User: What shape does this take?
Amino acid sequence: MAHPLIDGAEPGDVIALVGPNGAGKSTLLRRLAAEHQPDVGLVFQDRLLFPHMTALDNVAFGLRHAGLRKHDARQQAREWLERLHVADLAARKPDALSGGEAQRVAVARALARRPRVLLLDEPFAAVDVEAAAVVRAVIRAEAAGRVTVLVTHQPLDVLALANKVAVMEAGEITQTGTVDDVRTRPRSPWIARMVGVNLLKGTATAHGIVVNGTTVAALTDVRGEAFAVVHPRAVTLSNEQPHTSARNAWPGRLADVDIELDRVRVRVQGAVDLVAEITPAAYSELTPTVWASVKATEVEVYPA
Amino acid sequence: MRRLAVGIPAAIAVALIALPLAALLARTPWSTLGEHVTSSTARQALFISLQTSFGALAVCLVLGLPLAWVLARSTAPGRHLLRALVLVPMVLPPVVGGAALLFAFGRNGVIPLRLSFTTAGAVLAGAFVALPFLVLALEAGLRQLDPRYEDAAAVLGAGPWSRFRHITLPQLAPALVAGSVLAWARALGEFGATITFAGNLPGETQTLPLAVYVALQSDRDAALALSTVLLGTAVAMIVALRGRWLTR
Amino acid sequence: MRKAGAALSLALVLAVAAAACGGGDGDLTVYAAASLSSALPQADGVRYSFAGSQQLVAQIEQGAEADVLVTADERTIKRVTADYDAVASTTLAIAVAPGNPKRIDALADLAGSNIAVVLADPSVPIGRYSADALAKANVTVRPKSLELDVEAALQKVAIGEADATIAYAAATTTATAKAELVPIPPEHNVVARYYAAALTDRGKPYVEDLPAVLHKRGFDDP
Assistant: This one.
């Protein structure tokens, strides 16, 4: 039976296929490639440029097998290499190319036959910034009229290129939707982590959402099994119990912390585990035990 | 200390090969070499040797590549036995091999192809002893290939034959050349199987090794000259391929 | 432990040396023409080396040590020593498969297009004698192969790969490869003589007994 991922998509869709390592994303790509032969292009994780052929002949390979004569195939191949800004490498063999150069040749090779389905397996891994930018631009430009599936670990690619997201965990697709859908309403801890928000799972009531026995106040009409999203920036930390209007406030202990130049993300373990995003200055003033508070209006509840 | 432990046996090994060759060249009658080498015996023997050695190589390639493919890629049980069988001509005394060929394909053979005493028979004798060398080299080469390149070619629309021609074969080239040189050289030098199965007839089945042996009985100078021709042929082949493919 | 290793090495070296000196110093070494391989009796203390006469002489010239040399023609034995005697003789015969299925009666039949003939290479004596006989009978034969010695030719006839060869009459009757003999008339035939020489003193008794031994095996007087 054919996998529905592509059949349910529309021409022009760029679907980011995300998920933890080992979830089966590469395997799924291979299966899709087999199912949509011959109208499919696949950029492998290891690129797999034919080592005994030049870059030009690598790109021309698919064209030759589409029936083009050698001259015409090479001509078109050269055009594709130009699009990927690697035309001057046409005569080089793959072992003489850098990671970014080889990646661009691989993308050209996959696009050369103008396939209806384009599959890319981690195309930006181990690729320099310039090359990645070129590839992104080409993928975007070439998206019209075809379905593109892009396996990636980088949120930047998801945001910059994809209009839809499919989340794959343990061999199964657990969530699909537009980027905004998935971003604002994640349905698995993994995607929530990727997007960088707090995800709570519980039962929605008139008062909010009940998570592990604790009621998190929220304004919602949803009832029953539900998720709730709290952005880290909406979580305020203080050393004493706050007297603000926030109806949600719990004591907790500081746990993992991620310090960057202009912000700090720290996990607070308490009745409800939350990640808070605060300034480095604010962080340096905290005691090991703190109070975390969230306004009810900052808790977004949606059905599971 | 280690240098000596390695260097001395290595030097002895080199001497083991170099000294007999040097002695051969030293005893070669250089003044009469020209007339011996251009004698009709020598020319005929060289022609037959080239014909049968390259013919044997062709047979080995046509039959050996598919066999190596089976050995390298098949998962069927019994392929270990098959490999052992393929190695038998390597360990069998060539005369025994020749006798076996007689009983199989001779006038009264199991399959009476009547190839005994023919040039084709000499080719078959050469192929029999040379095949294991080619098959082993090719099997090793095939095992080293990354099958994912063939997957990539398939996605790009290449069918099985095209994948073989454009992806497998070019990557197999070094092993192919190395195996072919071994097989060709083995067939070139074959003596026992050839004399037993194909016989010894100048102009038909008398290869250079046979001509050398016959000449040794009566005309030592001619034998040395013919040996030099044989040596020269083999060296010419090695020089022609010098490193280009063998050391990729 | 090291002493055991040294002792073992020494034993090994001595064994190799003993083997290299020729197994069994008591054995008499006889180099004889291949055509006599079935005629000369096996005996205790005698080691035979059978090959074409030319090859035997070549080996001796290169330093092989033999006590007795027996060749199938005079030319070869002359190269080794002047002290030799004729010990036996025989004539030639056509050797065919038992039952003579191809009905070969004379040398002229060997020229038939459906007859597969193998001959010995002219570099061995029987090869030259065969050529002489064929010339005398005015017959041109296209052999399938020029075998390196008469035993090999007889083998080919015995297993049916060839229909006929020309061999020594007396030697054939005792050959390991059994063949049937078709006689060659005297006017076409050739007398082949065997010559023997004692290359060492030890070989003298053997050479003296040789004519009688060969006579018993069907060879004619020299």
The mean pLDDT of chain A is 89.
